[in-house]
Amino acid sequence: MSFVAHLFGRSERGRSTIATGTTLRGTVEGAVELVVAGTILGDVRATAVTVAEGGRINGDVTAEVLYVAGNVTGTCDTAALAIGATGTLRGEAFYEKFEVAPGATIEARCHTRPQRAEAATSQKVSTLHKRAALGAA
Q: How many CB atoms lie within 10 A of CB 109?
């Protein structure tokens, strides 16, 4: 278990949350689904990352799936990238699949790359969208 997973608690599903009002400085790593409702000032590497509305990451993000309803400034490297209506992405993005909701703000250079496991990636994005809609993310 990574330091971050240990520090913030790890659920049965392997989810860690950076709560509203919390600011972390430095690199955050974990083989978990990371939900960011607070602020991370540094790089993030996780299996899946959800930046909740009001959440913020200033740093590079590497994840299989990235859903942004908050604010990300940096370079994102992900198989599936989704920006929600309240989301803002600034910097640069490398992705296989990209989904943007009306109202999203993108001030980034965007680069596609060859797709790998399309079905699994689509399912992960769909699951994160459902959790966000239910308020579970």
A: 10
